[in-house]
Structure formats: structure tokens, C-alpha cells
Amino acid sequence: MTDIEIAQSAQMQPITEIAKTAGIDDKYLEQYGKYKAKVDLSILKENEKPDGRLILVTAITPTPAGEGKTTTSIGLADGLKKIGKNVVIALREPSLGPVFGVKGGAAGGGYAQVVPMEDINLHFTGDFHAIGAANNLLAAMLDNHIYQGNKLNIDPRRITWKRCVDMNDRQLRFVTDGLGGRINGVPREDGYDITVASEIMAVLCLSNSITDLKERLSRIIVGYTYNEEPVTAGQLNAAGAMTALLKDAIKPNLVQTLEGTPALVHGGPFANIAHGCNSVTATKLAMKLGDYAVTEAGFGADLGAEKFLDIKCRYAGLNPSAVVIVATVRALKMHGGVAKTELGAENLEALEKGIPNLLRHVSNIKNVYKLPSVVAVNRFPTDTDAEINLIIEKCKELGVNVVLSNVWAEGGNGGVELAEEVVRLCEKENAFSFCYDLYLSIEEKIDTIIKRIYGGDGVAFLPKVKKQIQQLTDLGYDKLPVCMAKTQYSFSDDPAKMGAPEGFTVTVKNIKVSAGAGFIVALTGDIMTMPGLPKVPAAEKIDVDENGTISGLF
């Protein structure tokens, strides 16, 4: 059966029963139909249970062969439940862009899924729509302020705030608006981001409360004056109305896995153009409710895990107990130079060439962040024992165990061995540390990430970037953490450099501050904050019958 057929055949429990399993009193539950609900944030203050262990699931550098990070996260949680552990999982919400584009949904796969899968992958509880509305309200108030006399002296050529839409639409990357005469606004160059790249997404995911959310929103910089002074959402008196639009969106969403494990699915910044983690509130709630909390971070460990550890954990005061690094033999052979059409044949030579990608991620978790880890290999029928043993042998040289995962086909039963290894790792003491210190300059922080995490020789800044860095330093933003916007397909800024490249520099083409979220964004390579659809988008295969049953969604 396909993923959607498996999900549609599942017998879901009412969300009230899942809430009871998680220890959520009915007074905290706000139901959205029979199988999903929001959880009021007051539970974080009123629940006195000690926080559970935090487990991060990350992966090797992604390839078209696939890795299965979300599927592994869900299967691991179900595996922990199988061995009698009290566990809650915290995941990101899918964006409609990938759902209708290339990647498809983000609710797991096979027998390791969160459900209702169709709802989660489509409109869910409306969080992304609320974020888009708040983003575009700020854009409208900004342009209206200029139209109504521009009391703040905003330079229309230096507006940094874009509108957004949760869809891959390259046509909207660069637009000219305000045309048609004076009554229709002030003409200027503009553009759109996809909703998951909006700073409001990052703000929502890093906020601890409605008060914190409103304060962060007020600090968002929307542009600069003719005198090069920053202008904020607070100065436009927009923060209150934006918060009103987001007052429900900040509450985590409760759903379930196919095996009835409680799952919090909330927030969805991409890791290549944003910080790539679900919300702080969902992660903290998972730890408050469960003895074990499983969460994941986007793309490879050089992106999602780095930002989870250096940004999210730093701000939220989180200390992970263990890290799972997901890999497949197929993906590692692609890193070794094998074409996607030839991955079914045993190729130890290519695998050996590709394994350094995995080993660099493993080494970073162990030697940079000082965290215990395990490698989870999603086994395919074409994988040979010799290939599996080669991975085991290479990882043992770094003192890290390898566990075979079969959660796609077997659900929680296929994740029991991984669950047992994770529990063992969680009992270890760790000396979690960050990749860089905040007192370093912006240039030094970026250089440190490139050398310590990517394995590069250093960084090159375009001339305009040096001016941007100086301006942000003069404004006092130089002590913020850095969010690298980089291709997900390579440790470098060149997607063609697969495996574990060496001897490269990363070029930073643009620097901006996300003052509300609380980090500096360094844009490298050809990163687009508004993706486009492929030649044959997934949307062409999605349909719905007269009974409302959806097909083609994966």
C-alpha cells in the first residue's frame, strides 16, 4: 500500500484519548474536530512533572535517494513506546510548497506516520495561514505608512520586509507594485518569500509565550530610513495586531502516530533558508509530558542540527541527551558517485567514498557538540550484508554504534533496537557545548561554522557584505547567533560537491538581521527564499473523489 492508503486505513483514536495518554487534562485541550487539537500554553507552568530526556534526530547530507529522518523519528517514538517508555514526539508542520512541489508531505512514511496525514499535510489547524496573514499585515501597514506621509522617513529603496505565500511560486520572487497612479500606492520593487522563510515563522517557533511573541514581533526590522536607521514593526504600531492573529497559532498541535503515540506537530521553518526546527513550545511541552521527547531538525546535521543546537537550544536552555543520525546505504553510494538508477547493485568502492559524509556528521556531533549519538541505517532490500558491515566498521572507529532501522515496514517493532540504544545513550552524562561563542564577531562566527562543521577552509565575503556586517555591528547586533542559509545538498555552498569535500571556501553574498527571531542570517550560494515548482509538480497527481477521499498525496 502507498503511504496515504496506509494512513487512511488506520483506526485513529479520538484526540481526547491521546490527550489522556499524554497526561493532558481536558481543560488544556482545544479540539479541532475529532482527531486533532491545540494545547493551551498554561500547561507548561502548571504541570510540575520533571522534564524528560530530549532526543534529536538528524541525518546525513540529503540526496534524491532519500534518508527518512521524519519516518525514523516517528518509528523511534513508537519503538520507545513498545519497550514501555512514556514518550511524546515533536515535529515540524509541512509547508504546502513541498507538498505540491517535489518533496511531498512531511508526516512520515509507511507504518511510521503521524495522522490524520491528509490534514497535517494540507491546511491542518491554520497556523501557516495565520503566519502569512501576520506577515502581510505588517507589509500592508508598512506601505500604508509611506503612502500616508511617511512620518518615519522610510527609504522605499531600503525596505527589507517582503510579502509571503505558502506555495512554491518563482513568478513572485521579484515584483514591482504600487502601480496605477497615486491612489494605488507608492511604486517600488518588491518580492515574496515562501511562508516558512518569513521571520514571523522563526519568531513564532522561538517564542516562549504570547508576551515573548509580541516583544519579538515588535523588534522585527522592516527597512531603513534615509538616514540609515532601522525601522521596526513596533514603530509602525503593528505588533499588537500581529500577535492577535497569532494568539492561537502559538499553541502546539496534538495528533497521534499510527500506533497511538502522542505527537506535537507545530511550526515549520526550512533548515536551508531558516532555522529548521519545530517550536520551542512544542519541544518543551513534549519534555514536560514525556519521560522521553523525540524531535527532529531539517535536512543534514550541518544545517538542522547545527541550528537546533546553536540557536534553539541556546535560547530555550535545552540540553539534548542523545542524537540519532539517519543514513541509508543508497544515499551514501550516491555521495560516492553512483547514479540513482544504479543504486540497487552492491558497490563497496562507492560506499567507501560516500561514507566520509556520514562520518563528518558523526564527528561533529561527538567532537564539536560533545553529545552521544547512534547511526540509524534505514535498510532497503537491495542493501547487502557487506555494505552494512562496512558502515558499522567505519562508525566503530569513531566509537559510535550503528543500528538497523526497519520502521517504514514494521512501525514501532522495527524501531525497538534503535529505541534500546537511545535509552542507553540517554543514561550517559554529556558535556554539551556550542560550536561558537556569542562574543565572537559576526565574521568569526561564520568562519567557525564553516571550519568546524562544514570542514571548509574559511569564508569569503562580497564587498557589500562587509559593509552590511559593519552596519549591523554598529547597531549592536553582532552578538547574536548566526543562521546560515546554504544549500542542503553539500557541506559546501556548491550543491555539486557531494560526499565530504575539502579545500573549499564558502562565499557569503548577503547578510541581514532577523532582530525579532534573534539571529543574523548569512546567505550563501544561490539560496532562494521563494522556491519554484518542478517540471512535473506533485500537485498534478493529487486528486479527491466524490466522497472527499484524497489520493496521490505522499
Brief overview, please?
The protein is of the alpha/beta class and 554 residues long.
Structural class, by secondary structure, is alpha/beta
Strand content: 15-25%
Number of strands: 25
* Shape verdict: globular
Gyration radius over CA: 23 Å
Number of helices: 19
Descriptive report:
The protein is of the alpha/beta class. Helices cover 35% and strands 20% of the residues. The strands form six sheets. Strands 1, 2, 3, 4, 5, 6, 14, 15, 16, 17, 18 and 19 form a twelve-stranded mixed beta sheet that branches. Strands 20-22-23-21 form a four-stranded mixed beta sheet. Strand 24 (543-544) and strand 25 (550-551) form a beta hairpin. Helix 7 packs across helix 8. The chain is globular.
Features:
12-stranded mixed beta sheet, 4-stranded mixed beta sheet, 554 residues, 35% helix, alpha/beta
Secondary-structure map with pairings?
Blueprint: H1 3-9, H2 15-22, E1 29-31, E2 37-39, H3 43-46, E3 53-59, H4 69-82, E4 87-91, H5 96-100, E5 108-109, E6 112-115, H6 117-121, H7 127-147, E7 154-159, E8 163-165, E9 175-177, E10 188-190, E11 192-194, H8 199-206, H9 210-218, E12 221-225, E13 230-232, H10 239-246, E14 253-257, E15 262-265, H11 280-289, E16 292-296, H12 301-316, E17 322-327, H13 329-335, H14 348-368, E18 373-378, H15 385-396, E19 401-405, H16 407-410, H17 416-426, H18 442-454, E20 458-461, H19 463-474, E21 482-485, E22 505-514, E23 519-524, E24 543-544, E25 550-551
Parallel strand pairs: 3-16, 3-17, 4-15, 4-16, 8-11, 17-18, 18-19, 20-22, 21-23
Antiparallel strand pairs: 1-2, 2-14, 5-6, 6-14, 7-12, 9-10, 12-13, 14-15, 22-23, 24-25
